[in-house]
């Protein structure tokens, strides 16, 4: 029996941090980390020195001071006696409102235009191409200003809806005499509940119990419809025949919501011209309308290209197989092409939602007070706390972007191809 002695390990030397590949990457990472931290420390130290030279400190006490300015469009209670923190909340809610409505409208526009651009009808296809090329190649700020100018210059004043001595008005309201578009605002019906359940006061603002009840009803209806479809799929896999579910789905989705609305006494408060303005409804400022339309049309052009690329990514054989089974083009698109194209469409669609949310900060150009207009505009100028205000805005926009990305990534994971 022969004993083989262990091979002695080489002693560690400092030169191995540079010449040995086992340690070189670690050395580079440590050096880069130290350089980044040194740069950050220099920035913080330089900022503190400059603030001391200006006689300033770093604190967020200004958020508790009186704001002193009015905000025309607000979703929760606010007066000019409220604090800057309250004004920041109003701006944040206005940003969320225009971003949410913009994402919905842009998605609808993008899907319709993206599908129609592939139409075999030459005129329809070219018209959609012209829309896409015009909107995505002109800066968004110009579209916001153009639409705002159209509203303020071409729409009539509110008194144009006042009837004269003969009972005839120069202008009449649109959509069955329910909406009045003026050069200052758009008067729309206000949703009301005659048997309201009241509000829940969470100190910061009040949450409508009626709205919570409706949302809960919709969520339960969606879960019931999902269970119905799951059962239909199980029956199909067991017997080969899929039971008819469309009318059951309609009943599950529509009837509970209608019953809840009836129970709450839902009705509309229609706008009515009294004096110099419309009352009884909600007066939506033209700045909001211009921003919402511009964001929707501009982002819709990009989403249309994403939808078109997603559809073209699906093999043409899929369409031919669907036609061979007797499906019409419309059902082929809804049942075969779009479900598969979603796996290609969703990832770039997330980026467009993020872009739309961040582009809403251009609202300051038309006087719409969102987060940029309140915290990053009037509050910043009044208090002189530019560093704190900008840092707060950066953190809020970062949180919004990460939240949107997280929600859409969850949806993307639910529609992606499941492999065994």
Question: Would you count the extended β strands for me?
Answer: 9
Count helical runs.
13
Proportion of residues in helical segments: 55-70%
- The structure class reads mainly alpha
How would a textbook summarize the main sheet? 3 strands, antiparallel
Distance between the termini: 53 Å
What is the N-to-C succession of helices and strands?
HHHHHHEEEEEHHEEEEHHHHH
Order of strands across the main sheet:
1-2-9
Average pLDDT metric: 88
Overall description:
It is globular and about 90 Å long. Helix 4 (122-136) crosses helix 9 and helix 5 (140-154) packs across helix 9. Strands 1-2-9 form a 3-stranded antiparallel sheet. The longest helix has 33 residues, at 21-53. The protein has helices at 16-19, 21-53, 84-116, 122-136, 140-154, 174-177, 209-239, 246-264, 286-312, 316-324, 329-359, 371-383, 386-415; strands at 180-181, 185-188, 190-193, 199-201, 206-208, 266-269, 272-274, 277-279, 282-285. It has 420 residues and is mainly alpha-helical. A hairpin with a 4-residue loop joins strand 4 (199-201) and strand 5 (206-208). The protein is built from 13 helices and 9 strands.
